[in-house]
Amino acid sequence: MTSSPTSDIDGRLAQGWGGRSPNGVHVNVLLARRGSPTAAAITTAFTSPRPGFTPILASLGESQPSYTTLNPPTVILSKSEAGPGMPETLVFGAAQVGIAQGVLDAVARQMLEGNQDTVVFVSLWVDPDGDDETAVKSAAREATRRAVEEAVQGLDADTVRRLVEERDTVTHPFYGGE
Predict the structure, then answer these.
(1) Strand-pair category, 118-126 with 25-33
(2) Which residues pair with 120 in a beta bridge?
(3) What averages of pLDDT result for each successive group of 10 residues across the chain (178 residues)?
(4) How many CA atoms lie within 13 A of 54 on its CB side?
(5) Rounded to two decimals, what is the model's pTM?
(6) C-alpha span between 138 and 105 (Å, rounded)
(7) Radius of gyration (Cα) for the chain, nearest Å?
(8) What residue ranges define each of the domains in the chain, with the CATH number in brackets?
(9) Contacts of 132 (CB under 8 A, 6+ apart)
């Protein structure tokens, strides 16, 4: 299933995982159109920082004076507190670059428009034990690419059917029950 960047993406959500622990990355992605209630919610998240969880407007460049804002504008909010125990460079550097690359992959594939009318929100989890910036960057790119693709295209019918059929036995790595 393919989608054009003019499709109604506002409010579409998905998740993606990339890499392997401890340098793996998990993201949740929310897509919006400028002027929508969804975009307003993303703007609220962006303008509501709190210690350890400062939203980032994805920007790229070789030095601070050369930063260029990613289009579509992409707001990143870490689900993991940056600071003691987790190098900030994993969130503000490696993961930000990987997320930007994943969004740009979607633009290159014409899944998203590279303009100010599309807004991307990425909720980011980086393992606090991560120790390889290049692996984290690659994992963030993979996770973001997967999440944006799922948000734009949706799950295929076979996957939805399989989940429904296996609903009594589905599990998760953080669930230890029976």
Answers:
(1) antiparallel
(2) 31, 74
(3) 63 97 96 96 90 88 94 93 73 95 97 96 92 96 98 95 95 86
(4) 11
(5) 0.91
(6) 13
(7) 16
(8) 13-157 (3.30.230.60)
(9) 23
